[in-house]
Every structure is written in C-alpha cells, then in structure tokens.
Specification:
Rossmann fold; Arc Repressor Mutant, subunit A; 4-stranded antiparallel beta sheet
Amino acid sequence: MKALKTRSNILVVDDEPVARQSLSDILKLEGYTVASAPNGHAAVEHVRMHPVDLMIVDLRMPGMDGLEVVQVVNQISPETEIVLLTAFGSTETAIQALRLRIHDYLLKPASPSQVLASVKKGLTRRSSRLRARSGSGNETDVEEPATEFSLKDGTVVDLSRRQIRFKGRIEHLTPAEGRLLRILMENAGKVFTHRELVLLVQGYDASQREAPEILRPLVSRLRHKLDSFPALNNRVNSVRGTGYVYEGES
C-alpha cells in the first residue's frame, strides 16, 4: 500500500500564536499530521522525541532562532525537510540559511496555496531521497523535483553540474545563474516576484525598487546563454511590474 501525504508528520515552529495556529489549520485540513512548537528549544525537543518529515520554521524568534534550529535539526534528524519562514525586513542572516540544508523559503504572509505547494514539494524530495537510498520505488506517487531536465530536442539542462548540453555544445552557468534557472525550471509557469528571486538566489532581502535592478543583469546574462539553445530561447520571460516566469515546453 502506497504511503499517502496524510501520513506525513509536519512540525510548525513560530513564536506568534496566530501564525502558528493558522499554518497548523491549513495543513490539518489537507490531512497532514501536524504538531506545533512556540520556540526553537521546544522544536528541537520535539524532533528528538518524535519523527518529523518536514518542518516549517520561522526565521526570527526570541532565544533560539530559525537558523539555529536548522543547524541542530540537520544533526539530529538529517532526513527532515525544512521550510524557512521570513518576513520582509528580517532577512539580514538569510545568506547563512542558503548554506544550510533548507528546502525552501516562504515570505510572510504566505498564502495557503504557497504553503501547501512548498510542503508537497518538500515531502516529495524527502521521499525520493529515501527511495534512492533504499532502492524502493513504492513510497509516493509524485515525482522528485528534477536536477536534470531533458528537453524534446535533446537539450539537457544539468542543474547539479550547472551545465547546458546540446549536440556537443556545453554552456556553463555561474552559481547564481544556476540557482536562478533551477528555481524557475522547477516551478515552470509560476511567476516569481523580483523580491522573491533576490532572496532565493542572492540570499538577502531587497526593496521593491531595488530588486528589479539587482536581477536585471543576472537575468540578462542567463538569457544570453539560453539563447544559444533553441529549446530554451525565450523561455525566461518578464512579467511586467512583477517579476519573471519560466515557460516550459507545451
């Protein structure tokens, strides 16, 4: 019998009672088994005593903050996926989080659809890693977020090596270009705001005015490289006044 998402154990960690309750309710309505913790210390103790498939952790908390929680959980429960919550204006240490093993960022206030999409993808990644380790293929119905994309004309986008290959041609991506392309391709059709992309790619928050200026040269360089490959030409598109989207193959 295949495992369903209703069996996944999720821990919500936030010092704000309303936010903690709201996230818990959203997840419970989807059938997940949900526990919550009001601070980092309580979260760590819960992980020590109970299996946790995925955690949603607020970055800024008094005492033990989100980054410290991630560091400890990485040691005591390395299979637990982690989604970090952060509010605008409180991301000075976000660059540190990018060096840790986190699955995703969610910017407060996150919509229910954003929360559920991130949780589903995190649980998928966890299940896929466990399947790869055990050799079992029956743990989940959903596919692993790809690290390599094979397009219809034979173009290969290898995100782990930051390479694009087609008919003997190889184009190398910088780390920032690779992160940007990974985020966009793994979420084809989803519009990311300028601020979200600066946070996810560069690791810090930027104002609504600054973010487009920060992204523009990076996107320009990436597009220039993609334009050498017919299957990737014109795939990264601007959404006027909002951000960027990757338009996948139809």
